[in-house]
Structure formats: C-alpha cells, structure tokens
Amino acid sequence: MRSGVFGKLLAAISALVMLLLFEPGHAHHGFTNHFDPDQELTIEGIVTEFNFINPHVTIQLQVQNEDGITELWTVETGGSSGFLRNGRLSRDSLRAGDRIQIVGHPARVGEHEMRANHVVLPNGDELRMNNPYIEIPFLRNTEGAEQN
To answer: Which of 22, 34, 49, 99 stands the most exposed, by the fewest C-beta atoms within 10 Å?
Structure first.
C-alpha cells in the first residue's frame, strides 16, 4: 500500500514538473503570423536590455523617431543556442548603453516590435541573421508569368 501512495505522489510531482517546464512554449509564434516579411525597417538606438535566451534572443532599444520622441522597441532574433553554436553572438556581445543599428521586419500588429535581419554592433561588425522567412523560388506565385 505504501508503494502505491509513493507511486501516485511521484506521478503527480512528475506531471507538475512537466507542466512548469513546458508551459512557456505555448506563447511561441510563427514568423509570418507575427512579422511582415514584405516590409523592412532600419532603426538605430541605445540598448536598454539584452536577453540572451531561448526561444528568442531579445534586445530592448530606445529609438528616437523623426519627431524627436523616444520609443522603446523590442527586437527578436533566433535562439541563443544557434548563436553559441556558430560563435556569432554571446551574452557579452551587447550591453546597456551600446548604440546599434538593426534592420528587420516589423510586427504586423502593434508598434515598436521587429524581427532582426541584421545588426550592426557597436564595433561596426555586421551580424546577419538566418531569417526564418526564406523565399523558395518554385513556390512563388507564378500566375500570369510566362512559362519557359
């Protein structure tokens, strides 16, 4: 009887741990659902926060708009593990106060959010991202196009 209670308790604890571990995954989004691949913006500003985490590295940036008003932008890239694997970016690559430039796709809904295509780091190095939206030529809309 004692092992039956222990087994149920172990199963309940295991279920709780699994729930806590996998709960953050529900907020993950598809690229073209959230960002507009047909638009591209360039912003430049001061880093206020750099989160080198999965599923997306995020950069908070203070950007002065054309009216001189400061806006807070959130920029996301791929996950940290991919950057670590290829040595292109680390948790020490950016610090609050760094001035950087980012080119990317803006969010479809809401303001001041984008997916980075490339980042110009404070030292002038340009970091190109592996964009999840890749146009595949044979899948393009060819309606009305001449056939070879």
So the answer is: 22
